[in-house]
Each structure stands twice: as structure tokens, then as C-alpha cells.
Design goal:
Blueprint (H helix, E strand, L loop, with lengths): L4 H13 L7 E4 L3 H16 L6 E4 L2 H9 L3 E2 L8 E7 L2 E2 L5 E2 L6 H9 L1 E9 L13 E5 L4 H10 L2 E5 L15 E7 L5 H9 L4 E4 L1 E2 L5 E6 L2 E6 L3
Parallel strand pairs: 1-2, 1-4, 2-3, 4-7, 7-13
Antiparallel strand pairs: 5-6, 6-12, 8-10, 8-11, 9-10, 13-14
Amino acid sequence: MEKSIDALKREAAVAAVNQLESGMVVGLGSGSTAYYAVVDLGMRLAEGSLNHITGIPTSEATAKLARQHHIRLSTLAKHPQVNITIDGADEIDPHLNLIKGLGHSLLREKIVVSATERFIVISDDRKLVERLGQIAPVPVEVIQFAQRPVSDYLKMLGCNPVLRKLEDGRPRITDEGNIILDCYFEEIEDPYQLAAAIRKQPGVVEHGLFLDMAAEAYVAALSGVQHLTRVQ
């Protein structure tokens, strides 16, 4: 009997939570795979196999979920250094460079990851790609006032920027009150060059290219969970 995608996500999440130790400050990711990491962490705290964990949530949704599972939360103001962050990804290339942000939380995710000693990515094997941009757009978080000039600029970089919307057609607003433009590229030849170019435009808050940030990844497949590490 084949495993469901949810079962694979759960296996990857559990493998990452196995790396936590009592007393750590832990970045809590957002999205469907990170959900299982938060739930599993809450279960371990409840049973006592982990203690004194402090969570730094990367979204309001994750904060709500963590509170439901009685995970103590804090902020980067009080805990500016995070031991481990566990979060999902929308694409993972062979160098563990990532596209993140389809779950709407890329800004807070990147802030927390940037304050983290060890960033662990969790995913199922559908997210593995040879080159970034093959299956996912690059999300770009943008100040609402700047939607048109940023969109025009992104088109000049060679993509089709699409405003992310809710089912009722309204723009999807992030926790920080911004909009997201999902940028569809035919090919991303150099993600580093692209990341630098996107940041040059006023009105851009952040982008979903997470380059040289992940230390390792736990990727679940039908054959088991694979542990990948980034070559320095």
C-alpha cells in the first residue's frame, strides 16, 4: 500500500524533530510539512521526552498551532539566536538552495532562518529539482503601494509576475500587510544573480530564494527518509 503525501511529510518532520534537544530555541516553520513538525514537537513536550523548548514562530498561523499544542513561544527580541529551525520548502536543488513562500510566510521565515545556527529543511521527494524554478514560481513579497512598478520591473527580469489572490479574488495579504507576486520564469540560469536583481527594486520587501541557508534536509520518499547535507 502506497504512502500518502501527508504520511511522507510526517516522516520527514519526525526525522527533523529527532534532532532537537531539551533547552533549545527552535524556529517553527510554516506550511503543510512544518505543521507536522510543530504537532510532533508538541507531543514530545507533552510526554516529557523533550523539555524547556522555546519556539519562534514564522507566521501567525504557526503561532496559533503552537499554542494549541502548548509550546512556549517567544520572539527574536528576547531570543536573537535560534539553535535549530525546521521548515519546509517548495523546491530543493542539489546544493540545498530553495524556493520558499508558497505558504505566504517567506519574510518571517527568512528572518528566523537568518538568525539560526542550523536550518533543517523537511519535504517529500516531489520537491527535489535539478534547477530552481522548474516546478514553483519565485514568490516576491511587495509593498501594496508598489505593486505596478515592481510588477513592471520583474517582467523586465524575464518572468510573468502573478498577484497571489484569495478564492474570492481579493489579494492575499501577508502577516506584514504586504502582497505577493508569484514570478514564473521559463528558466533560472543563475539564482544568485536573480536574487540580487530582485532586491534592487524599491518596493520589494523580500523574495523566496533561500540560497546557502539550509544546512541539511530530510526528504521522505516511498523508500524511506533521505538525509541530505549541503557541501560547504
